[in-house]
Amino acid sequence: MRTMVYIGWMLALIISAGHAQCWPRNDSLRIAADNWNSFLTEEERLFYQSDVFPFSLAQKGRFAVESWRGLPPGSRRFSFNGWDLYNPLYGAWNVQVSPHFRTWRTVAEMSPLVLSYLPLPRAQEPRVVITHFLDFVLNLSLIDIDFTRQYSKSGRIWLGGHNFLRQGSEPNGASQIQTTSYFGRVEQRLTSRWTFVGSYYQAHNDFYLPPEQLFAFTNDQFKERVILGAAGIHGALGASDSTGVFLTGGEFTDAYRQNRVLQRRGITRRYGLTAYSFWTRAAFRLGVTNRLEHIRASGVPFVPLSETENRLYLILDTRTRNFRLSGSGGVWYNTAYRAFPEGSLKARWQTDAFQITGTAAVHHQAHSMAYRALQIAPGAFQSAEPARIRTAEIQATVQPFRYLTLGAAVFSSQYKNTADLTPDTTWQVRTISNQGIKGQLRMQFSRWWLAGEMTYNFNWEAAFAPRWHGLLHLGMNLQLFRGALRLRGIFTLNYFDRFYSLQFHRLLRAYIRTATVRGPYPIADFRLFASIKTLTLYFVWENMLSTDYSFVNGTLEMLRMFRLGVRWTLWN
């Protein structure tokens, strides 16, 4: 079995591929959104990318971060609606509280180290979208409502929220999981050129974990709250520019209790000013952006810390018929360190059937404030240098036939001056480097399609990555009763080869690599969608092979899970 899997992924690499997605290329944005929104969390989206290794505390809705191409958690930053989704106290973002029901995909415009969540297309007409599902193994339930309407000729409002709940069967709520979010956005046109935008996002996360020590009989409870807000104007000073100024604010609070006794409480507040201006001349675009932010963190067992951070960038984008060059360069400054240059470069050349892309980026970031403010053992982490993250990649894709897309990529990544906790919880400073190859393929024949993606990490023994990580999707797209009923099915085989398991440090919310090697794990899922006009019914069968897998010690996934749900779009 294992030899056959290796041979299969080697073949996938040799004929590897374009842009593997979990829906056919000719689907509309609405259909694509229906597919991805049948998934529960952002963690699940990351689970289906071969160069991402998910660090989940198991059972959806708890806590999860991602390692991209072997780099430590927090290396990649996410943004949505003008917010920087990042908690500086712990150095990473919990993807479980990402606004995934408000988005439909992620993009990296110039730097793969910074990803933007793209919102779902907002309709001009009034619209209500209701999503509901039940999980019949964990007794999970979710209800999500998305509302859009134009309240005047020059104003529009977008509201949304979801409640994801598992009561569980253990006494005193020891198996409870709850994630709740609220979202609002107002757009009001002020003049023919200027528009006011105000937005708000709030999320609550509450869950329990079993004790770290067997038969300890502790009740470990974790709570997290995220509040983000932004307000500003965007428009144009002239006929060929786009300009915007926004005030942003955020508060991150969390608590960890053991048998109701407080072990940790963190409070982080961020206040920022973001300004940008872009000028466009034919095939040439020039811009400048500046993001100024003040950060304050405190809590237990941390001493208060306060620092200011600023990123000033000059952005250039130019293109011809077959060539595009995009670049950004500037200065990152943090009062806890000093100023450092950073930037990114992306070049792409393409024809009708061939494309080659090269990217390179270097970013800096301050070490986790929790590490630098810790008052108990192992003590505060001290470093005069921030973390420096470098990546480089060359990717080529070719479409020899209309139904076949092939491609391959070679990448290198490095995280220098990382603060790392050893298994005996002492600090060490090290550089994590990884090189790898990634292959993808896509074939589509009439109503059937096949997509494959595989990543091999050469330095998996030192990086946060498995040796091999492969994905294979087989899908169908059928229309019955003269198009009145549309059936879409997706079978996925997700294969994780050998990797070093992790230990979750509950006090610092950190992930520590252990000496235990796990894998390989073949994990199979099946999803079926039935769409009738604006109504979509879906059935999900996860872990069909009942693989007993785990990435983080002490947390186990369910052997099989069944989910039944509905997504209904109402137009008023």
What's this entry about, in short?
The chain has 572 residues and is mainly beta.
Structural commentary:
By secondary structure, the protein is mainly beta. It contains four helices and 30 strands. The strands form four sheets. It has a 22-stranded antiparallel beta barrel. Strands 4-3-6-5 form a four-stranded mixed beta sheet. A hairpin with a 4-residue loop joins strand 24 (468-480) and strand 25 (485-496). The protein is globular and about 60 Å long.
Keywords:
single chain, 572 residues, mainly beta, 22-stranded antiparallel barrel, 4-stranded mixed beta sheet, 4 helices, globular, disordered N terminus
Write the layout of secondary structure elements.
Blueprint: H1 2-14, H2 29-36, H3 42-47, E1 52-56, E2 64-68, E3 77-80, E4 83-85, E5 103-107, E6 114-119, E7 127-135, E8 140-152, E9 155-166, E10 177-189, E11 195-209, E12 220-235, E13 241-258, E14 261-281, E15 284-300, E16 305-319, E17 323-334, E18 339-350, E19 354-365, H4 369-373, E20 387-401, E21 404-421, E22 427-445, E23 448-457, E24 468-480, E25 485-496, E26 499-505, E27 510-518, E28 521-532, E29 535-542, E30 561-571
Parallel strand pairs: 3-6
Antiparallel strand pairs: 1-2, 3-4, 5-6, 7-8, 7-30, 8-9, 9-10, 10-11, 11-12, 12-13, 13-14, 14-15, 15-16, 16-17, 17-18, 18-19, 19-20, 20-21, 21-22, 22-23, 23-24, 24-25, 25-28, 26-27, 28-29, 29-30
